[in-house]
Amino acid sequence: MPTAYKLNPISGIKNLLIGLWVTLRHLFSKSITLQYPTERWEMPERSRGVVVLLSDKESGDLNCTACILCAKACPVGAIRIDRHRGDDKRWKLDSFSIDNTICCYCGLCQEACNFDAIKLTPKYEFSSYDKASLIYDVHRLQELGRDVDFVPTAKKAAPKPAATTPAPAGDAATAVATPAPAPATEPEKPVEPKGEGE
Ligand code: SF4
Ligand code: SF4
Protein backbone atom coordinates (compact mmCIF):
# COMPACT_ATOMS: atom_id res chain seq x y z
CA MET A 1 0.00 0.00 0.00
CA PRO A 2 1.57 3.38 -1.00
CA THR A 3 2.49 5.65 1.92
CA ALA A 4 1.23 9.24 2.27
CA TYR A 5 4.51 10.94 1.41
CA LYS A 6 4.71 9.02 -1.86
CA LEU A 7 1.25 10.22 -2.74
CA ASN A 8 2.07 13.80 -1.69
CA PRO A 9 5.87 14.39 -1.86
CA ILE A 10 5.50 18.13 -1.20
CA SER A 11 3.83 17.44 2.16
CA GLY A 12 6.50 14.83 3.02
CA ILE A 13 9.37 17.25 2.33
CA LYS A 14 7.60 19.98 4.30
CA ASN A 15 7.19 17.74 7.40
CA LEU A 16 10.80 16.59 7.11
CA LEU A 17 12.02 20.21 7.09
CA ILE A 18 9.85 21.04 10.13
CA GLY A 19 11.40 18.15 12.02
CA LEU A 20 14.92 19.21 11.09
CA TRP A 21 14.18 22.79 12.11
CA VAL A 22 13.04 21.62 15.60
CA THR A 23 16.23 19.58 15.95
CA LEU A 24 18.36 22.52 14.84
CA ARG A 25 16.68 24.89 17.31
CA HIS A 26 17.41 22.63 20.30
CA LEU A 27 20.91 21.70 19.12
CA PHE A 28 22.44 24.97 20.33
CA SER A 29 20.13 25.79 23.24
CA LYS A 30 20.86 24.96 26.91
CA SER A 31 20.25 21.32 27.69
CA ILE A 32 17.54 20.53 30.27
CA THR A 33 18.71 16.95 30.81
CA LEU A 34 21.59 15.73 32.97
CA GLN A 35 24.22 13.14 32.19
CA TYR A 36 23.27 10.91 35.13
CA PRO A 37 25.12 9.49 37.08
CA THR A 38 28.06 11.80 36.39
CA GLU A 39 25.70 14.75 36.91
CA ARG A 40 22.99 14.99 39.57
CA TRP A 41 20.13 17.32 40.36
CA GLU A 42 20.67 19.71 43.23
CA MET A 43 17.71 18.94 45.49
CA PRO A 44 16.02 21.52 47.75
CA GLU A 45 17.56 21.61 51.22
CA ARG A 46 14.49 20.27 53.04
CA SER A 47 13.45 17.65 50.49
CA ARG A 48 12.56 14.30 52.04
CA GLY A 49 14.74 11.51 50.77
CA VAL A 50 16.90 8.84 52.37
CA VAL A 51 16.57 8.69 56.17
CA VAL A 52 19.98 8.64 57.89
CA LEU A 53 21.42 8.47 61.39
CA LEU A 54 23.56 11.40 62.51
CA SER A 55 26.81 11.19 64.44
CA ASP A 56 28.72 13.58 66.67
CA LYS A 57 31.08 15.56 64.42
CA GLU A 58 34.00 15.29 66.83
CA SER A 59 33.77 11.83 68.36
CA GLY A 60 32.05 10.16 65.40
CA ASP A 61 29.70 8.33 67.75
CA LEU A 62 26.03 7.99 66.93
CA ASN A 63 23.80 10.60 68.54
CA CYS A 64 21.13 7.95 69.04
CA THR A 65 20.29 7.13 72.67
CA ALA A 66 18.04 4.18 71.83
CA CYS A 67 15.02 5.92 73.33
CA ILE A 68 12.79 4.36 70.58
CA LEU A 69 10.62 7.49 70.27
CA CYS A 70 11.17 7.47 66.50
CA ALA A 71 10.02 3.85 66.22
CA LYS A 72 6.88 4.67 68.19
CA ALA A 73 6.19 7.71 66.00
CA CYS A 74 6.64 5.85 62.71
CA PRO A 75 3.15 5.28 61.28
CA VAL A 76 4.17 2.29 59.14
CA GLY A 77 6.52 0.48 61.51
CA ALA A 78 9.54 0.96 59.27
CA ILE A 79 11.97 1.45 62.16
CA ARG A 80 13.19 -1.53 64.15
CA ILE A 81 15.35 -1.04 67.24
CA ASP A 82 16.87 -3.60 69.61
CA ARG A 83 18.40 -2.33 72.86
CA HIS A 84 19.46 -3.33 76.35
CA ARG A 85 20.20 -1.65 79.68
CA GLY A 86 23.88 -0.96 80.26
CA ASP A 87 25.71 -1.11 83.58
CA ASP A 88 25.15 2.63 83.94
CA LYS A 89 21.37 2.02 83.60
CA ARG A 90 21.31 3.76 80.21
CA TRP A 91 19.86 2.19 77.07
CA LYS A 92 22.46 0.75 74.69
CA LEU A 93 21.74 0.23 71.01
CA ASP A 94 22.02 -3.33 69.73
CA SER A 95 20.59 -2.80 66.26
CA PHE A 96 18.73 -0.13 64.33
CA SER A 97 17.22 -0.61 60.89
CA ILE A 98 14.88 1.22 58.55
CA ASP A 99 12.84 -0.64 55.96
CA ASN A 100 12.85 1.66 52.91
CA THR A 101 10.30 -0.52 51.13
CA ILE A 102 7.58 0.74 53.47
CA CYS A 103 8.93 4.13 54.63
CA CYS A 104 6.63 6.90 53.37
CA TYR A 105 9.07 9.78 54.13
CA CYS A 106 6.64 11.52 56.44
CA GLY A 107 9.41 12.88 58.69
CA LEU A 108 7.65 11.97 61.95
CA CYS A 109 10.73 10.09 63.17
CA GLN A 110 12.84 13.23 62.80
CA GLU A 111 10.26 15.30 64.64
CA ALA A 112 10.04 12.78 67.50
CA CYS A 113 13.80 12.61 68.08
CA ASN A 114 15.14 14.88 70.83
CA PHE A 115 18.81 14.10 70.20
CA ASP A 116 19.53 15.21 66.59
CA ALA A 117 20.02 11.56 65.76
CA ILE A 118 17.79 10.87 62.75
CA LYS A 119 17.18 13.05 59.69
CA LEU A 120 15.56 12.95 56.27
CA THR A 121 18.04 14.08 53.61
CA PRO A 122 17.85 15.26 49.98
CA LYS A 123 19.57 12.04 48.89
CA TYR A 124 17.37 10.08 46.50
CA GLU A 125 19.29 7.12 45.12
CA PHE A 126 17.67 3.86 46.22
CA SER A 127 18.06 1.81 43.05
CA SER A 128 18.73 -1.82 43.79
CA TYR A 129 18.28 -5.21 42.16
CA ASP A 130 17.62 -6.79 45.54
CA LYS A 131 14.59 -5.81 47.63
CA ALA A 132 16.23 -7.07 50.83
CA SER A 133 19.06 -4.56 50.42
CA LEU A 134 16.55 -1.73 50.87
CA ILE A 135 16.48 -2.49 54.60
CA TYR A 136 19.32 -0.30 55.85
CA ASP A 137 21.12 -1.39 59.03
CA VAL A 138 22.74 0.92 61.57
CA HIS A 139 26.13 0.91 59.80
CA ARG A 140 24.68 1.95 56.47
CA LEU A 141 22.43 4.56 58.08
CA GLN A 142 25.41 6.00 59.92
CA GLU A 143 27.63 6.07 56.81
CA LEU A 144 24.88 7.81 54.82
CA GLY A 145 24.65 10.44 57.54
CA ARG A 146 28.37 11.19 57.82
CA ASP A 147 28.30 14.08 55.34
CA VAL A 148 24.92 15.45 56.43
CA ASP A 149 25.07 18.84 58.10
CA PHE A 150 22.88 19.57 61.10
CA VAL A 151 22.69 22.26 63.73
CA PRO A 152 22.76 20.68 67.20
CA THR A 153 19.65 21.63 69.13
CA ALA A 154 20.39 23.67 72.21
CA LYS A 155 19.66 21.67 75.33
CA LYS A 156 17.04 23.22 77.60
CA ALA A 157 18.34 24.41 80.98
CA ALA A 158 16.85 22.72 84.04
CA PRO A 159 14.11 24.84 85.68
CA LYS A 160 15.32 26.93 88.61
CA PRO A 161 13.91 26.10 92.07
CA ALA A 162 11.35 28.49 93.59
CA ALA A 163 12.77 31.39 95.66
CA THR A 164 12.83 30.69 99.41
CA THR A 165 13.55 32.78 102.50
CA PRO A 166 15.81 31.46 105.23
CA ALA A 167 13.98 29.81 108.09
CA PRO A 168 13.98 31.53 111.49
CA ALA A 169 16.68 30.52 113.93
CA GLY A 170 15.83 27.37 115.85
CA ASP A 171 13.90 25.91 112.94
CA ALA A 172 16.73 25.52 110.43
CA ALA A 173 15.25 22.38 108.83
CA THR A 174 12.42 24.22 107.16
CA ALA A 175 12.48 26.99 104.63
CA VAL A 176 9.46 29.15 104.00
CA ALA A 177 8.43 30.17 100.53
CA THR A 178 8.37 33.94 100.06
CA PRO A 179 4.73 35.05 100.13
CA ALA A 180 3.55 37.00 97.16
CA PRO A 181 3.33 40.75 97.87
CA ALA A 182 -0.20 41.94 98.58
CA PRO A 183 -1.75 43.99 95.79
CA ALA A 184 -1.39 47.70 96.25
CA THR A 185 -4.61 49.42 97.40
CA GLU A 186 -5.51 53.07 97.02
CA PRO A 187 -5.15 55.11 100.30
CA GLU A 188 -8.42 56.22 101.80
CA LYS A 189 -9.34 59.84 101.08
CA PRO A 190 -9.29 62.12 104.20
CA VAL A 191 -12.75 63.21 105.37
CA GLU A 192 -13.17 66.93 104.86
CA PRO A 193 -14.44 68.79 107.96
CA LYS A 194 -17.98 70.09 107.58
CA GLY A 195 -18.54 73.84 107.52
CA GLU A 196 -20.32 75.68 110.41
CA GLY A 197 -23.39 76.53 108.30
CA GLU A 198 -24.10 73.03 107.41
S1 SF4 B 1 16.99 8.12 66.52
FE1 SF4 B 1 16.37 9.60 68.10
S2 SF4 B 1 14.24 9.03 68.64
FE2 SF4 B 1 15.15 7.26 67.53
S3 SF4 B 1 15.95 5.93 69.15
FE3 SF4 B 1 17.64 7.25 68.48
S4 SF4 B 1 17.59 9.02 69.90
FE4 SF4 B 1 15.60 7.96 70.09
S1 SF4 C 1 10.03 9.00 57.48
FE1 SF4 C 1 8.05 8.35 58.38
S2 SF4 C 1 7.71 6.30 57.53
FE2 SF4 C 1 9.89 6.74 57.18
S3 SF4 C 1 10.95 5.89 58.96
FE3 SF4 C 1 10.50 8.04 59.47
S4 SF4 C 1 8.50 7.99 60.55
FE4 SF4 C 1 8.75 5.99 59.50
Description:
It is built from 5 helices and 7 strands, in the order ααβαββαββαββ. With 198 residues, the protein is α+β, with helices and mostly antiparallel strands. The strands form 3 sheets. The protein has a 3-stranded antiparallel sheet with strand order 2-3-5. It has a two-stranded antiparallel ribbon with strand order 1-4. β2 and β3 (91-99) form a beta hairpin. It is elongated and about 95 Å long. The chain starts with a helix and ends in a 21-residue tail after the last strand. Mean pLDDT is 82; it is low at 169-198. The structure holds iron/sulfur cluster (2 copies). One iron/sulfur cluster (SF4) binds at residues 64-70, 81, 112-113, 115, 117-118. One iron/sulfur cluster is lined by residues 64-70, 81, 112-113, 115, 117-118.
Topology:
Layout: H1 4-7, H2 9-27, E1 51-53, H3 69-73, E2 79-85, E3 91-99, H4 108-112, E4 118-120, E5 135-136, H5 138-145, E6 164-165, E7 176-177
Antiparallel strand pairs: 1-4, 2-3, 3-5, 6-7
- The shape is elongated
Structural class: alpha+beta
Give the oligomeric state: single chain
The fraction of residues in strands falls at 5-15%
Written as H for each helix and E for each strand, in order along the chain, the element string is HHEHEEHEEHEE
Largest beta-sheet details? 3 strands, antiparallel
**Distance between the terminal alpha carbons, to the nearest Å?**
132 Å
Features of the shown structure:
two-stranded antiparallel ribbon, binds iron/sulfur cluster, elongated, alpha+beta, 3-stranded antiparallel sheet, disordered C terminus, 198 residues
